[in-house]
Write a sequence for this structure.
DNA sequence: AACAATTTGGTAGTCACTAACATTGGAGTT
DNA sequence: AACTCCAATGTTAGTGACTACCAAATTGTT
């Protein structure tokens, strides 16, 4: 029994997915999100509408940016529980953004920073997408709370963790908005650090030597 | 030319609106949000589907809780600009919640605390509504930033204001979730104050004598 | 070549939401 | 009271996102 089912199949599937998303983002940017039907995207990508739905369960998913949930959760889990919650979370967000942008200057469209900016702009400017985007933060928030681990010494630990996580994520979102407005000129992790400092005061949020 | 157009007409319209929303929340709670069609709501309320759409532009609006944007904005605008941003915002949120719940123990369904809790629970448990709910915060965030006023001494004042506002609102949301989970047993403003303290440290957030 | 599994296409249907038009019933006027 | 005006409602037909179901094509394996 093979586990590595296929390579060609996966390649084609991934390419189809990229093609669909690329055309979708292009059309959304050109004509607007609401003015572009899934059928238009399918026609432009040269596939049937059904195929679009198979690759992207909803129209919104054609634009969504994954938030590196895994990477952030890992960094938080690896951080010292002795530190304040917002510092543990804030540092993870800053570091995740740093690795994100550092590896994104590739010629490949799917991972290019420009493509990321295009999707981010769409998400910010389109109400329907904004709602979904924010909803996505909810899942990330839960992942952060889980990664923080259970602090059994504090009775309201979970409540505090949720509060800190949502506050940090909302602050990061502000930085993302600014980043998109500036067309990516300013470094994203720097912006996130600045936003966190503005919201929470001058905590030592720079991702230096971790305790 | 009359300005006080009518009383009976407005009464009927308001009553129709309340009836529709009451049946909607009831059906959503009983059968689930997605499993309930607008037609079902219309039938239950004894009106046509069109009437539902005229009173509530979207299905989500049947559940949405307004966040007392005006009240919060007024309190922030009245606060002293010398204080830290999160304290100005946090106090306004706490005080708004206090006035909200204090006046909500009326027998009237539309303003009853139970009805508010029902809608809140729906919003939290239903993904589609969660997204819209969070999107609503975005508008409130903008109102808060506007109410804070322009701090011309700081170059990144607007950015800092957005960061602080979104962080505070996200924290308040955490408190709302807890409040709904506890079925309103704990005082809402107390919960919000606790969440803010957890996220931002022990700032003096109690709405005592304002500076 | 033959078979199994995965991907894709087509059809029909549900549901949220909109636009255009007809109808009803209060509100103010004569 | 009769009449006009206007807001509220109803009706119909349509668009578009999304799903369920079935058929066809393509790929990996025997």
């Amino acid at each position: 029994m093979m586990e590595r089912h296929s390579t060609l199949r996966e390649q084609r599937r991934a390419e189809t997915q990229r093609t669909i998303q690329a055309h979708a983002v292009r059309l959304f940017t050109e004509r607007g999100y609401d003015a572009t039907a899934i059928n238009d995207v399918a026609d432009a990508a040269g596939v049937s509408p059904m195929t679009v739905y198979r690759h992207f369960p909803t129209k919104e998913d054609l634009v969504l940016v994954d938030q590196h949930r895994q990477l952030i959760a890992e960094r938080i889990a690896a951080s010292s529980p002795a530190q304040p919650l917002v510092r543990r979370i804030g540092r993870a967000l800053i570091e995740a953004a740093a690795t994100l942008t550092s590896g994104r200057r590739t010629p490949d469209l799917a991972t290019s920073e420009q493509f990321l900016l295009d999707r981010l702009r769409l998400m910010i400017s389109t109400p329907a997408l904004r709602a979904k985007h924010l909803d996505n933060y909810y899942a990330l928030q839960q992942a952060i709370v889980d990664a923080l681990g259970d602090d059994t010494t504090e009775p309201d630990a979970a409540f505090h963790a949720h509060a800190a996580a949502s506050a940090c994520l909302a602050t990061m979102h502000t930085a993302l908005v600014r980043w998109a407005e500036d067309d990516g000129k300013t470094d994203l992790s720097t912006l996130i650090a600045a936003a966190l400092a503005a919201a929470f005061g001058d905590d030592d949020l720079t991702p230096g030597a971790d305790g």
